[in-house]
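Query structure, 295 C-alpha cells:
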C-alpha cells in the first residue's frame, strides 16, 4: 500500500477547487488499481505529523504552496508539485517553477511516479543556525529558495560582524540575502544588477550546485564593495558567520516563519540542510533553470 498525502491551496477560487476535484477523483480511481491510500489537507492546517510515514507527498497549488510546507518533508520522501492555476493558461496564474505537473498531465504523471519512472531531483536547501548569548542553539527550517537575515525594523540598518573562512569585517547593510542555485530566479536575481548576476553565474561549475550558495549584502556602501568584494556578493561553500550588532534581528527562510535573535547572537548559514526530493516528469530542475536563463 502506497501512502500519499495531498496538500492543497484553499482560497475559495473556483480554479483551485476544480483542480482539487480532478486530482482527488484521479487518486480515488487509483485506490483499487494501484493499491494506494491517500489523505488530503489544506495548506493552512497541515501539521508536521501529517507527513510522517508517507511514500509520496503531492502539493497542489503554486511555488508558494510548496515552499510554505516543504520544511515539514524529510529528504527521503518524494514530492510531486502540481500547478493548480498555470500562468500559461491565465496571466493571473502561477508560474510554478517547482510544479512540473498540471491538471492536463497529472493522470500520466502520477502513474509514472507510482511506477518509478519520474526524474528524481535532490534539491539543496539552506539553513541558519542561531547561537544565542545564553547558550541556546536553534536551527531554522530549511530554505529551498532563499534566506534573509536583517533588522526586524526595516527602516534601521542591519549591523553585524561578518566572517567567512579567514576573512573578517564589520559592516552594515539592509540585510544579507542567501540563495540556492535554483532559488536565484526568485528574490536574489532582483537584488543585484544583471551584470553582477551574470558574472556570478559564469563562476558556477555543475559540480558545485549541491554544495555552494549565493550571498549578497543588500544596499552595501560602494566603498565597502570595492574594498572587500567577498563580503558583498559571492558564490561560496564556506559557512557565512555573523555576530549581530542589532538590538533585534530575524532570520526568514523562504519568506515564511521569522526566527528572532538579539544583539550578540551568532548566526551561521550554510547549504547543509536536508535536501528536498522533488519529482519531475519531462525535464530535470537543473535543465529547466538553464533553459530559463537562455531566454
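Result returned for the query:
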Amino acid at each position: 500500500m502506497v501512502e500519499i498525502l495531498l496538500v492543497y491551496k484553499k482560497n475559495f477560487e473556483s480554479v483551485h477547487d476544480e483542480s482539487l476535484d480532478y486530482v482527488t477523483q484521479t487518486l480515488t480511481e487509483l485506490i483499487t488499481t494501484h493499491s494506494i491510500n491517500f489523505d488530503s489537507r489544506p495548506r493552512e492546517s497541515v501539521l508536521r505529523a501529517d507527513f510522517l510515514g508517507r511514500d509520496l507527498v503531492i502539493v497542489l497549488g503554486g511555488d508558494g504552496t510548496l515552499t510554505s510546507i516543504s520544511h515539514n518533508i524529510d529528504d527521503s520522501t518524494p514530492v510531486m508539485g502540481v500547478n493548480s492555476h498555470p500562468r500559461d493558461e491565465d496571466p493571473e496564474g502561477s508560474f510554478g517553477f517547482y510544479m512540473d505537473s498540471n491538471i492536463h498531465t497529472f493522470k500520466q504523471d502520477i502513474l509514472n511516479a507510482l511506477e518509478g519512472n519520474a526524474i528524481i531531483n535532490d534539491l539543496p536547501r539552506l539553513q541558519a543556525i542561531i547561537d544565542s548569548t545564553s547558550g541556546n542553539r536553534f536551527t531554522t527550517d530549511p530554505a529551498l529558495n532563499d534566506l534573509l537575515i536583517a533588522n526586524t525594523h526595516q527602516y534601521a540598518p542591519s549591523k553585524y560582524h561578518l566572517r567567512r573562512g579567514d576573512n573578517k569585517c564589520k559592516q552594515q547593510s539592509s540585510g544579507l540575502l542567501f540563495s540556492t542555485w535554483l532559488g536565484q530566479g526568485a528574490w536574489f536575481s532582483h537584488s543585484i544588477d544583471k551584470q553582477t548576476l551574470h558574472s556570478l553565474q559564469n563562476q558556477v561549475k555543475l559540480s558545485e550546485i549541491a554544495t555552494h550558495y549565493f550571498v549578497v549584502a543588500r544596499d552595501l556602501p560602494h566603498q565597502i564593495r570595492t574594498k572587500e568584494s567577498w563580503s558583498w556578493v559571492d558564490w561560496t561553500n564556506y559557512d557565512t558567520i555573523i555576530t549581530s550588532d542589532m538590538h533585534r534581528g530575524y532570520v526568514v527562510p523562504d519568506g515564511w516563519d521569522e526566527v528572532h535573535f538579539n544583539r550578540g547572537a551568532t548566526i551561521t548559514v550554510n547549504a547543509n540542510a536536508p535536501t528536498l526530493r522533488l519529482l519531475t516528469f519531462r525535464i530535470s530542475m537543473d535543465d529547466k533553470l538553464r533553459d530559463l536563463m537562455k531566454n
